[in-house]
Amino acid sequence: GNSVTQMEGPVTLSEEAFLTINCTYTATGYPSLFWYVQYPGEGLQLLLKATKADDKGSNKGFEATYRKETTSFHLEKGSVQVSDSAVYFCALRNYGGSQGNLIFGKGTKLSVKP
Amino acid sequence: DAGVIQSPRHEVTEMGQEVTLRCKPISGHNSLFWYRQTMMRGLELLIYFNNNVPIDDSGMPEDRFSAKMPNASFSTLKIQPSEPRDSAVYFCASSLGERPFFGQGTRLTVV
Predict the structure, then answer these.
(1) What is the pLDDT of residues A39-74, one digit of tens each?
(2) How does the average pLDDT of chain A come out, rounded?
(3) Would you tell me how many other CB atoms lie within 10 Å of the CB of residue B7?
(4) B71-101 per-position pLDDT tens digit
(5) Are A103 and A91 in contact (CB under 8 A)?
(6) Mean pLDDT, rounded, of chain B
(7) CA–CA dist B70, B76 (Å, integer)
(8) Which residues of B touch A97 (CB under 8 A)?
(9) Long-range contacts, B50-57 (Cβ 8 Å, 24+)
(10) CA torsion, points B39, B40, B43, B49, in degrees to nearest 10?
């Protein structure tokens, strides 16, 4: 079946530090991959996505590259800000029949200190 | 568009009571998802509809949970009877194609 595994948090960084949150997946076929962000008290918002191998999704300084050979979609940011403090979810979606649902990892909480 | 609208935002109920959570998806979207979020289990898919038809309800925890989508603009998730372990944040999401949009969630507390 489909599944997503992401690194456990919490992750605590100082402002301007480099961020990596690891995500690997298991899926049949060719899923689309997503990173969602959840700020305190809010719903999930799409941060970035990639729909095929070697695609790079990017938004707000965050990047992730769809690596089919390693089944990974690691999230990176070169210089984090306090405002990036949130929970980050990696997700995949397969298509067709009952495969159309969106499967999430357990989330990684990021805290950025000034 | 107002986005995915969930109601209520917060619900506190006593054990044994019936709880109904509501969702209005984005107009024109053809897929709707219900998720449950807890500290212990993270974000779990409960049920997924496509064109108002339940496609995958394997995540529904037990018979106390039921979901309906009578038309393209409305869905409900019902818990009867509710139990304290049902306390969680319940999210609804809708999509057309591959990008689901999430509502702000309903925080359910069962005491």
Answers:
(1) 988 888 999 999 999 999 999 999 999 999 999 999
(2) 90
(3) 14
(4) 999 999 999 999 999 999 999 999 887 678 8
(5) yes
(6) 92
(7) 9
(8) 55
(9) B50/A100, B55/A97, B55/A98, B55/A100, B55/A101, B56/A98, B56/A100, B56/A101
(10) -120
Question: Which residues neighbour A111 within 8 Å (Cβ) at sequence distance 6 or greater?
Answer: A10, A11, A12, A13, A85
For residue B27, the one-letter residue type is: S
A106 → chain B, closest CA residue: B42
CA distance A19 to A17: 6
3-state secondary structure of A1: coil
A83 touches B at CB < 8 Å: no
* Residues contacting residue B8 through CB under 8 Å, at least 6 positions apart: B21, B22, B106
Residue B36 · residue B92 · CB < 8 Å: no
Q: What 3-state DSSP class applies to A48? A: strand
Chain B contact for A43 (CB, 8 A cutoff):
yes
Cβ separation of B48 and A100 shorter than 8 Å?
yes
Fill in the amino acid letter for B69: M
Give the tokens for residue B95.
């999509």
Q: What are phi and psi of A48, to 5 degrees?
A: -160, 165
pLDDT tens profile B36-51: 999 888 888 899 898 9
pLDDT at site B41: 84
